[in-house]
Amino acid sequence: MTTLADLQFDNRFARLGDTFSSKVVPDPLSNPQLVVSSAEAMELIDLNAAEANSPLFTELFSGAKLWSASEPRAMVYSGHQFGVYNPQLGDGRGLLLGEVVNARGEHWDLHLKGAGSTPYSRMGDGRAVLRSSIREFLASEALPALGIPSSRALCVTVGDDPVYRERQERGAMLLRLAPSHIRFGHFEFFYYTKQHDALRQLIDFTLQTCYPASQQAAEPVLDMYRQVLRRTVGMVARWQAYGFCHGVMNTDNLSILGITFDFGPYAFLDDYNAGHICNHSDHEGRYAFNRQPGIAHWNLACLAQALTPFVDVEQLKAELATVMPLYQTEYLRLMRARLGWAGEQSEDEELLQHLLQQMQASASDYHMTLRLLAEDDASVRDQFIDRDTFDHWWRQHQARQARDPGAMAGRLACNPVYVLRNYLAQQAIAAAEQNDFSEVRRLHGILRQPFTRQPGQEAYAAPPPDWGRRLEISCSS
């Protein structure tokens, strides 16, 4: 493990030059305080967890100081937002401080979110507020604990700076980690502006840094696309299996690495509702829970379009045709594991759909129902209104398990006790806005071990109270 002063930088993206990003210096927070930090995220860059206790830690991650080797850059990109192409986006409130190399030779981007205005802020202030920073921190660390690929969050700092959204709030910063911050929208920007030489340079850079094995393929760009597609499909299958709604699946929010990225109005399901919409700005339900697989397909088609100068269109279409079959295969595999069904049976999909239909009709709690099923807890019956219909399903479920009991032993290991429900995040935020960060830290600690019941933490496994159901979440949340 190492210290803050000894982190090693290798700023590969910055070396691409001004065509791809702009030099920007962070605008520091006033009177910064550390809200929360993640020892697991710190470990990714070999940073000793004790470093979070040093004043330098808070200074660096509130924009007050910089490493001499860091080269802060704001990236330029574009993207389809709610299905409409926006030609000019970019890092409007975040900066890529630099890339740290750990002892294993892995590169990790240090991205400071809420660092002030950039050339891409589009009249915005470039700030983040405390509530949105806490929500992103918690999600970034909770999802990997569930086995869902995600960017990571190292820490949140808060200052005294007033920031105006729906109301006056406190400005904050989040330090995000990811092996790369390249998005689908990066490729779209250079494609639609007809900068095909720069697009080729971006593709080559992505091959070298993110998909080096694809360089050995007969058609490297096509193979890279195939890997992006499969990772994205696998990520969305995990979202669906664990009841996660992203909320804003614009192409500028889709990572080239197939990791969950850019947390805005996200939510985990409470009552099962296939058409749940977590973003109060999504009036048409474009990003409803049950539409996420189809939107992933749509976004992958947008990326494919941006690669057409270098890949045959028919080959790209052939890859796109695999999206839904790949998704269905992976989703069923995950749900079989959650239900303790070994192998594959022809009736599995129908049996699963019958369960989900009953959960929808009864407004059953998604996570509690699946956990009780995994525990063979008879109280699961209380989650359903039509008990006779559930009893019939239960007998079919038991018969399915009995055909091969091998998968049953692993059910508890893939059915979480604790998930990041909106009301839990809101309670932590409310306390933090009163300068009490203990609940954020406690919740973070619980979510690090989601599959194991933790003594004294029963309240965190409970369904939401009435006030906590169907909370509306905005893009600034």
Give a written overview of the molecule.
By secondary structure, the chain is of the alpha+beta class. 36% of the residues lie in helices and 13% in strands. It has 14 helices and 13 strands. It has helices at 39-44, 55-60, 130-145, 184-192, 196-209, 220-241, 292-306, 313-320, 323-339, 348-362, 366-374, 387-402, 422-432, 438-447; strands at 8-9, 21-23, 33-37, 73-75, 79-81, 84-86, 94-101, 107-113, 128-129, 152-164, 168-178, 244-245, 267-268. Strands 1, 3, 7, 8, 9, 10 and 11 form a 7-stranded antiparallel β-sheet that branches. Helix 6 runs antiparallel to helix 7 (292-306). It is globular, with a radius of gyration of 23 Å. The two termini are 34 Å apart.
The residue fraction in helices comes out at 25-40%
Strand tally is 13
C-alpha geometry:
globular
Span between N and C termini? 34 Å
Succession of helices and strands: EEEHHEEEEEEHEEHHHEEHHHHHHHH
Largest sheet entry: 7 strands, antiparallel
In short:
With 477 residues, this protein is an alpha+beta fold.
What keyword list fits this structure?
about 475 residues; alpha+beta; seven-stranded antiparallel beta sheet; two-stranded antiparallel ribbon; 13 strands
Topology:
Blueprint: E1 8-9, E2 21-23, E3 33-37, H1 39-44, H2 55-60, E4 73-75, E5 79-81, E6 84-86, E7 94-101, E8 107-113, E9 128-129, H3 130-145, E10 152-164, E11 168-178, H4 184-192, H5 196-209, H6 220-241, E12 244-245, E13 267-268, H7 292-306, H8 313-320, H9 323-339, H10 348-362, H11 366-374, H12 387-402, H13 422-432, H14 438-447
Antiparallel strand pairs: 1-7, 2-4, 3-10, 5-6, 7-8, 8-11, 9-11, 10-11, 12-13
